[in-house]
Amino acid sequence: MEIIIQKTAEEGSAVGGRIVAKLVQVKPKAILGLATGSTPVQLYKEMIKWHKEQGLDFSKVTTFNLDEYVGLAADHHASYHRFMNEHLFDELNVPPESIHIPDGLTENLAEHCAAYEQSVQEAGGIDLQVLGIGSDGHLGFNEPTSSFASHTRIKTLDEQTVEDNQRFFKEGEEVPRHVITMGLGSIMEARTCLVLAFGENKADAVAEMVEGAVSSMIPATILQFHRDTRLILDEAAASKLKKADYYKWVYSNKPEWQQY
Ligand code: F6R
Q1: What is the mean pLDDT of each run of 10 residues along the chain (260 residues)?
Q2: Catalytic residue flag (residue 136)
């Protein structure tokens, strides 16, 4: 795992933006896996900047989002569909037919999940999967004890995640407990994983993910087995890493051809 520690979330997101841009430059038909939540918002701003200021073309890119709440329509104010339009797709030239987000209103969940997984395969698999990490160590909505072999399916949110995500809902509105999420097995199939974590409330989960024992109690630890995971942190999220100085040295001494 490559650990990239930057002073701030803004600087970290700029590094992430360069990683995405480099991929789309060399592979215009790249397949991107995308996440929602607060963490990737600045990364998406960077991607929009690349598009608007550097002319980076996303017209041949295909995207697959990680997850969606069961029961929320695409235009619900707290749906991940709406989130993606507001934070990325309204400003980028990815054709609507190349955007895939699980349908929270599907009438046949099992079939929908299997078809979603199938469409990732048919597209050729994910080149780069953007991920945030939950304060309980989840990836996507794969909560603690999720199977490491899991694929897209329905999951039930942990109380901690419901609490963490309440801020996206209006007062008095309940966070749906059920979600559709790509599995840990699906995530492991991505050729590159780009994980972002910012802020002190992610420090424990990050320390477990990087330096802890692999366990489904901390789902993100599965990435210790992934062949190309790049983890971008700010100082606060990196504050509990024992080997932070080593990771910083490695990053600042990368050979030029390896730099982002
Ligand atoms: C979102 C997702 C989640 C979030 C995680 C962190 O699509 O899959 O795993 O990445 O809950 O959320 P934030 O970034 O809001 O702290």
Answers
A1: 98 98 98 98 98 98 98 98 98 98 98 98 98 96 98 96 95 96 98 98 98 98 98 98 98 93
A2: yes
Q: What spacing in Å lies between the alpha carbon of 221 and ligand 1's midpoint?
A: 16
- The CA–CA distances, whole Å, from 106 to 66, 88, 101, 116, 121 equal 16, 24, 12, 12, 20
pTM metric for this prediction? 0.97
Written in H, E and C, the secondary structure of 85-134 is HHHCHHHCCCCHHHEECCCCCCCCHHHHHHHHHHHHHHHCCCCEEEECCC
Ligand 1 proximal residues by C-beta, below 6 Å: 35-39, 66-67, 132, 134, 138-141
> Which atom from ligand 1 is nearest to the alpha carbon of 67?
7
Residue among 141, 158, 167 whose CB has most ligand 1 atoms within 8 A, to mutate: 141
